Amino acid sequence: MDASELAWRGRAAARVMRERARQAIAREQWNRKALGRILGPSAAWTAVRDAVAGGRWLDAHVGLARHVASSPQRFLVAPRVRPDVLRRVTSQFPDAAGEAAGRANRILGGDYDLLGYRGLRFPGLDWHFDPVHDRRPPRRFWADVPYLDPACGDHKIIWELNRHQHWLALGRAYWLTGDRRYRDHVVAQLYSWLDANPPLAGVNWASMLELGLRCVSWLWAVGFFAEPDAADESPWLVDLLVALDRQLTHVERHLSYYFSPNTHLLGEGLALYVAGRALPCLDASPRREAIGRRILMGEIERQVLSDGGHCERSMHYHRYALDFCLMALAVARITRDGVATELEHAAARLADAARLLADDAGRLPHLGDDDAGALVPIAGRPADDARDSLAVAAALVGHPNLRVGPTPEEALWWLAHPSLAIALELSCAAPRRTRPRSRALPATGYYVSRSAAGDHLVIDAGPHGYMNAGHSHADALSLTFAARGIPLLIDPGTACYTTDGELRDRFRSTALHNTATIDSRPQSVPLGPFHWARTADAAARRWHMAAGFDYFDGVHDGYRPLEHRRHVLVVHEDLAIVADLFDGGGAHKAAVHWHIDPRWRLDPGARHATMSTAGGWAEIAIPAGTLEPFTADDATGLGWHSPAYGRVEPATTLRIVAEANTPFWIVTVFGLDPDNQMLAVESLPVWAEAGVLQRSTALRIERTEAVDYFLVAHPTEGRKASWRVAEIETDARVLYGRLHRNRAFTLVACVDGTYARFGDREIAVGRTSCDERAARWG
User: Fold this and answer.
1) Mean pLDDT computed over every residue of the chain
2) CATH number of this structure's domain 443-674
3) pLDDT interval class at 720 (50, 70, 90)
4) DSSP for 691-723?
5) Is the omega angle on the peptide bond into residue 561 within 30 degrees of 0, that is, cis?
6) Which pTM does this prediction carry?
């Protein structure tokens, strides 16, 4: 810690000590009379103050509701836009009302879908209960609640309910159906929560991010339900504003500087900014919006990297950061804040990276932690489906190409304000590119190969994470792959955070990712649920994109002084070759793992396997070793995946093991063309003048329609020479060629080469060959 951090931590500790002492003397309680103190100085609040002073709570409530209904809209939803939203939603989504009512009715019945869990029930609506593990944290002073202790249950489950984001689902159902039960249920839950959570007591005051997200949900509730003619029997707006103000004060006092200076701090800044801009009635709003604005802009500068990736190197938290920026941008536009220009620039960068990282269905791979949460889960979309965020971004930043498919319903709620709705209509009317092309995010460390057929491969080759890397996994040089738009090689996910240490470490281990282990060791070693004792950083040595192929060469330092180096060649819509080199001296055992999405049916053999699913076909082959399949294997921990936080389900893992003196290779070939299947794959030596190149590899791939050759050469550094493989001679570092049945040889891919010769025939390098599908690119 430097001097500034030490000073900050000292001040923070002093604040906590003072609060603890005050609570020990006299516990703070909710007090409606506080409304008169927290309202701003405007004369517009004179009648409300008078009602508070006289104890006329319903009069104060009606005065607040009239203000919300009649004042200019300052949040995403407001009573005045209800007719327009209903018209747009019902015209574009005729089934929305029924779907919304079905989801809301389950909530009325006490069934909650939270994180990866379905149908959770909280007896008596216990706001401090984890029903999955049947545990409760102690109800003590907020800073003394050991919420990371498994004995307290899973704090993620408790906090997810207490975010009150299901109120958005109830608000959606209320607007679409007019059923007052949904509105009444939110009011009843508000009072239930206030009774169970007095100020500063219990787990629901322990995380400033959770308070911030709850306050955002309450802003949605105000926009959905503040109706002056509703004949309410309770002054719920009075009590909500008093409690919201108190929670925002707590967030202000205990911001996550130096504690969780990542998406936690970004989300806290969002809550302060949005509440400050949306609630000018509160006296503290100018201060809060200034603090929130400063945090947002400072953390965007720090957390959003130059290529648009998020510093935590987690797809899920990248989406959180994107949604935080989008909501701040929407409110800045609505309230005409000049910071909108800077927010738009940040949102555009984050959205551009998210669109690249999402496949053609809008799904983000599960790289890094995934807690299955979302900022605006109004319609129950899966957390890895980013189509709603991308549609909102397309409208707000004016880039229609960000959108994936038709505009989702969620975007209509996000952009309910008339000016934002116009932006959405313009975005939908504008022409779009069909899909993004292959590209790298070099600062973040992601390398993405895409094809016109929907193939989508993402390679993780960047730093381990941000600061303590709390949401990172031991996944250097791992990759995910969707074939023809169907996920094939998957990241198995997260499973849990704190309730099961062994499960937590297993799901973020190297063996649970599509990469390699050496001597059964992980690349990075965990130390508790959100820290690491030792970490591995990866880096790209070469990234080459061309019209018909992409090539990646990268390395990481997780096994130093041993080296794991990975080469990936993708010939679009045809095949992908992953060649792993292990070097550094001595005899070692290496294992490469491939985790298969469970929707694929696997027909395994010793060195070849076919995979099929509805609308998809693929195959995998290796030149040596054995493909070992594992499904739900408790002994190895392989053959499992976590599609969402809290769920662990069977899948299939293929493992390839080799043990030899280094250097040695493990090479895997994935075929994607059922009309040109692989019949056999064999390794070939790579010859140079001085003999066989030890750190190089070559393959002969016999296929039904041709024979393919693949070469990766690692000559001595600085040495430029030629080498031979079978009948091929070249000086290329990477070469992929195809020998047709008529003995015509077509050069398919060449990287860092000046010539190639097949037998006595020179193959032109630098011009397109005659084969229209397997041309020379790059």
Assistant:
1) 94
2) 2.70.98.70
3) low
4) EE-TT-EEEEEEESSEEEEEEE--PSTT----E
5) yes
6) 0.95
